[in-house]
Amino acid sequence: MLRDKNIAFFIDVDNVGLNNEQYADIIDQLSVMGSVMSGKIYGAGERKHKEIYENARACGYTLASTMRVKRRGRKDFDARIYVDVVDTISHAAGIDAVCIIAQPTDLVHLYSYIHGRGLKIIALDNGDEASNALIDEVVQIKDASDVKPVKKPVAAKPAPAKRAQPVADKPVEQPAPAKNDDLDRTDELLREIERLRNLASAPVVEEPAKAEEPAQEEPVQEEVAAPEASEEAPEQAEPTSTPRASYTPSNERDLMRRIEEIRKNSQGDNDEFVDEIRKLLDGLE
Question: Positive or negative, the Cα torsion across 73, 129, 78, 12?
Fold first, then answer.
């Protein structure tokens, strides 16, 4: 038997023909299997099923009106159950089992979908063989004589909220402070004043005086005594005449020009003129 399940039930009161005692007994059976998280009741008229209607509203279950298209004497399966079951298990978190109380019909596809979502199935055993094979737990509808006194239906517990995945906190960007030119200028002046104040209060370090280099003494030049002049000065030698270089004329015209120059320089002294001519001719030999 199922235990500790979170159950969502769908009961078609009108089509199954439940009275108040049978309805209350079904709720008691479900409370043994677990906790009723949500419930929807179909075909419960406010007059015909007054007690069921009032109990359902008191417990917070959803009431669906009787189908508009219905033939007398026929109890067809309410097709709205298909949609409501799929919608509930798709959006409600924490549901472990689904209970369907309705007229027998082919529910193989619906039961297969419920099992595919990992949920258990609770139902009547009035379906066909294939559908009954997929049921995990059976609910019994007892006769009126066997039904226990009516108990107040248990209120449905709200489905636990789906736990949200933790999201890493993004660093909040702090807005950049507005730029103030006056403040910036004031800060700059204060820093400059502080710098000058530190320079003024700093001790003055005197640089050591450079040692004076000793003056270099100028070398004393010793006076060399000039040799005393001899009482008698040596006689100066008479300059000797520089020997004349030999002359080599290049042609006769050059020779005649040279003889003419010698004649002019002799100033009419024939002896001197003759001597010069002789020396010139001797150089030609």
Answer: positive
